[in-house]
Amino acid sequence: MKITFLCPHLRIAGGVRAILIHADRLAQRGHEVTLQVPAKSAVTAWWRNRFPGQVDWMPGLRARVRWVPEWSATRVPDGDAVVATSWRSVEPVAAAPVRCGRKFYFIQHYESLYHGEAARVDATYRVPLRKIVISTWLADVMAERFDTPAAIIVTPVDPAQFHPVPAEDDGKLRVLMLFHEYPWKGVADGLEAFDRVRARHPNLALVGFGVKPPPRKLPFAEFHENLPQERLAWLYSRCPIYLCPSWDEGLGMPAMEAMVCGAALCTYDNGGCRDYAIDGRTAVVAPRRDLDALAWGLSRLVEDAELRRRMARHGQEFVRTQFDWERATARLEVLLAAR
Question: Based on the domain organization, do 222 and 81 belong to the same domain?
């Protein structure tokens, strides 16, 4: 098949990584896959196409990257399938000629919550493109709010990249949390929950990581800025607890990656986590934005070493066995080929 993905950018982000892995694996299976990416200008697009370079954080990408000044229906190439991957890419896909192939909308978050004007974003979910979502929660949103069915392909964790890595044992109990400036990532909630628990356990250490450092001093014992992809497994492995205070997530890949590396998860019920965070079995789950419950859940993992080990073991096994890239690629291939 000839398949085109309209990809919003090529910077490191969980959603973009999922798009690129899908594209790469489809290309590996013999399909002709193009990633159409908007550039800042026509000159920039021409230059990048004239002198193409690799995606430095994903070397060996087998899909073709094609830069365009902007997405438009006239720039979508002929093919068998074309895939919108964000609300802004829906209009050009919907308007593309029939010769461009079957039309899909790959949905990785309910973007109306935080990206763009809500009514305008909601309108894209009513466009008659075939929907593919990455979590059961997103499928429920599509069905309940927009009366549209959606196929589910939960994004797996790559075991070649994420796996337990031997770490130094210095006796410290570390809690790892992602830092992001988006308020809905819940960093303020996570900091408050951690402070409450540390008041009783002063030796507890909070470790932060993110693409950018905090703009102000926060109580991180250490912070890892823009850590190379190959070092993430080391970071996850040295922190026995992963704290996820996000209010809403389409899925929540960092939490899954941490679980595969052996961390016990404490999380809000953010929607997307329901496919892997089963309270009392694979994670400690607090109701959405219930700070008292989040702090209590974190304290349980800190104070009960056996519970922490059990959650880590069950969570690791669940994510590792339930979600597999080979099955995910096969499922996507079937959906894109379906008449």
Answer: no
Helices (H), ranges, the chain:
14-28, 42-50, 90-95, 118-125, 136-146, 187-198, 232-237, 253-260, 291-303, 305-322, 325-337
Residue 83 near residue 4, CB atoms below 8 Å: yes
Distances from the Cα of 88 to the Cαs of 81, 93, 119, in angstroms? 18, 10, 13
Q: Which residue has the tokens 């697009």?
A: 45
CA distances from 152 to 101, 107, 222, 329 (A): 21, 10, 37, 12
- Distance of alpha carbon 27 from alpha carbon 45, whole angstroms: 23
pLDDT in tens, 267-318: 999 999 999 999 999 999 999 999 999 999 999 999 999 999 999 999 999 9
Q: What is the pTM of this model?
A: 0.95
Structural domain includes residue 160: no
Residue 169 lies in a domain: no
Number of structural domains, the chain? Answer: 2
Q: What is the CATH number of the domain that holds 196?
A: 3.40.50.2000
Structure tokens at 60: 């060996």
